[in-house]
What does this fold into?
Amino acid sequence: MSYAPNTDADRAAMLRTVGVESIDDLFVDIPVQHRDPALDLPPALPETDVIRHLGQLGGLNATSGDLPSFLGAGFYRHFVPALVDQQLLRSEWYTAYTPYQPEMAQGTLQAMYEFQSLVCDLTGMDVSNASLYDGASALAEAILLCRGLTRRPRVVIAETVHPAYRDVAATYTSALDVDLQVVPAAARDGISVQPDNEPLVEAIDDQTSCVVIQRPDFLGMVVDPDPVVQAARRHGARVVVVVGDPVSLGLLVPPGDLGADIVVGELRSLAGPPAYGGPGAGMFAVRSQLIRRVPGRIAGRTVDLDGKDAFVLTLQTREQHIRRERATSNITTNQALVTLGATISLSALGRRGLREIAVQSLTAAHHAAEALAGAGAVIATDAPYFNEFPVHAPEGAAARLDRLRRDGNVLAGVDLGCVSPRFDDLILVAATELTTARDVEALAAAWARTR
Amino acid sequence: MTDEPLIYDLSSPGRRGVRSPLPQFDPVDPGDVLPSSELRTDLPLPEASEIDVMRHFLRLSHKNHSVDTAMYPLGSCTMKYNPKVNEVTARTPGLADIHPYQPPETAQGALELIYELEALLASITGFPAVSTQPAAGSQGELCGLLSILAWHESRGETRTQVLVPDSAHGTNPATGTMSGLEVISLPTADDGGIDLQNLKESLGSGVAAIMLTLPSTLGLFERRILEVVELVHAAGAQVYCDGANMNAMLGRVRPADLGIDVMHLNLHKTFSTPHGGGGPGAGALAVQAHLEPFLPEPRVVRNGGTFALAEPSPTSIGRVHSHLGNFGNLVRAYTYIRSLGAEGLREAADDAVLNANYLRASLSDDYDLPYGRTCMHEVVLAGTRQRRLGVRTLDIAKRLIDYGIHPPTIYFPIIVDEALMIEPTETESRESLDNFIDVMRRIAREAESDPDKLHDAPVNAPVRRLDEVTANRRPNVRRVQESGD
Amino acid sequence: MYPDDLGYTREHEWVRDEGDHLLVGITAYAQEELGDVVYVELPTPGESFAAGDEFGTVESVKAVSPLYVPMSGEIVEVNEELEAQPELINEEPYAAGWMIRMAASDPSERDALLDAQAYQQFVNELRA
It folds into this structure.
């Protein structure tokens, strides 16, 4: 079974046209000793059986319905309206490819243009591309852009930027002349953790191509970036802002208003459930001066021969298929279907809906903090936060999280030891508009039970 | 105005689409917990009703051509049918509503799926180790070259060059540059293969790897592949295979058996995860044992009956994704391979190659065929005969649109003048191919009798040809709020 | 097509000797081959280049071509009009479409340039 419609009679007739005896004759260029290996694969499964098999694998995983979950850290379970997936299941969207032939792809192109517009409006930036692979590689590409622009070797990156993003940036730059310097941006005073811009400000110098900060930061804190932005300006460095949760942009001042030159982030949560981390969609928005250095695809508005408004892939000379070894990025595919989901979601939520779920997320997180405090937990920061915050676990985050799951039946959060060993007694707790009062009760009860 | 207004134009103050969830808690006033300077004052998003949003995107979708609409023979992209069962399995709650950072004990099914998919891809390609972390083929390429560099370094060698045939996808040289390597272009020999003499001369102690595409972008299997591999290895370099065209080889040859060291696979091409209007893809990386220590981390490992994420490795090139890649697409690729089995995969390759050769044999009277021999999964024709009549390949492509067929890849590979790169895939029937042949012949006749018909095409699409010059000179890439809006 | 008072390179740049400075652009042949120019990337005044160095790029919709300095020297001025109106390169390649003005560091390099007749012959060979 290969979904191929040809019958043996079709094949025989086609072979006659080709002028060969058998299909084997079409593979004679393959060295004979390596031809036709036996593949060691399990037997083919009909649709019913493959669905059952995958259902069984899925059954081995705990969903948010099985265990109340306060996991965030860049992937949030947000409300995605029902019409989104109805659209994403339309063949015209998901079985098309890159709109190389604009006359047959106006749907995809206009959706891309609308996506770019929505991202600009959300972030306060001038130009957005049509997405990169995920938030992490979007950050890596931002760093590569700044390197090419400034020809400076140093990158100052706040420790409070998502650690996986930092890791991916390190991989992407590993073969290039880039000095990636991770700088603490949160100070520890006993249990408490507080924002600290000072080390970042001091680290920025005349060899710095860009400084990277996150808002809300990876510990959940909302920090005024102005001192860092000013220091970057003084030294001619660019400012890259990672957006922690795109829904926060429904409430918080957009990075464009704060002096960002490039804004990146992960948009998965606007389009669907976390899906074990992918496919996501990397947001990438810049100031207008940088438009011709943006990696990835961009849709533009133009007219056709009759003067009718239409859309087309534009500025393609930036891309690898034209620039080849002169290109600064090799990116080809993007995450069009995920961004389509985000576009539809933002359209349906609209101005009020996005703000409402942002406020509900903030509300749920602050109630969760209060409930935890009531159960004896210490919230480890006084800094303002949006929908995530650090909680102190005296015995260590890993051990406590394990007990909270085993004895308390909750996924209480993420071990902040992944940021730095300095934080391995902190748990990052996240809530969204989908967090229920029962979830919060379960979390508080579990905390009390595992003290 | 376009036919379809922008979503912003469907907006009316106070109108709303979906309702937010019912409040679960007493509301917290953002102004009480955040400094007022942190709160935005405007949010210029549209305000549209649910039905208007639904109709807007439905109408937009109608302007797209897709695999499910009609033939989509876009060369090098493997636009095969996307089985619907894949979409069902990918939406299984236990595989969709799971968080990347939940403990491995609570994600055993997801880890098992990744582990098993890597094993299936290993069987199909012959490589002992596979990583499904790369989010796309291009990212797989980057991982592949970085792994090769790390291997050279582990042997105390610094190599700074990569050889790339001039027929390669643009991603290959771009990846070389991202890997800090000098890219050296190799000319193609007269038969469409690699010029061995030139290869010998190019191979020096500075060459880290050759990146070759198999079958090549000319749709040809490299007949001298064993000699190429031997020469490259003798020079201490590695052989990287761009596996975009794996669809031609399923069950017919395992690239690892040819001595290739590392290869990426485009799961959205060969293994039928959908193309999504441009992505997401997924770009698994397969390597020989000596390169396994350098694969991206974290790796999924099996300890007895349970699955886990391996501890960080000092030799790994590091992470390239926030978690473990485009998991939803891994579910689809796994579903596809389990649905087809070994026989189905081989049948897919067989029909893909037969279909391409059928087009080659049927169209070579009407179009030039730069390389006459048996092709693999795609055939590259040239519109050079038509150019003499004043018709360009672009015109042929646009005319195909009028006949309801998506044009092939055009002007690529760049070494073929007026190239038309046609990949029918195995899921087109003989009747569908005959229709394509008929249309292509008709277009060849039109080029002779009525070339303006081609110059003016398309006339049956939602829009006619576009003014790309203005789009590039004065880019309009976002909706600009009009005054009084 | 190719004014007599200019010097030319085999990379299709022209040079006008203005006494103190050199004015540089691309030839009518080059702009024709490129098609509609949509963007040109130029250096910053103050940057120095050796003869043959790449000083920028010129782009059409589907191609990007490097630009090379014909003679060594420092950039004095770039044509800022081109940012908003790259089409000037197509319309008036030898006048409003100029690209950079430079101060030559080695005037003797002028001798290595082709004259109009030699350049015309070079183009004829390319077209043959």
In short: Chain A has a mean pLDDT of 96. Residues 82-345 of chain A form a domain with the Aspartate Aminotransferase; domain 2 fold (CATH 3.40.640.10).
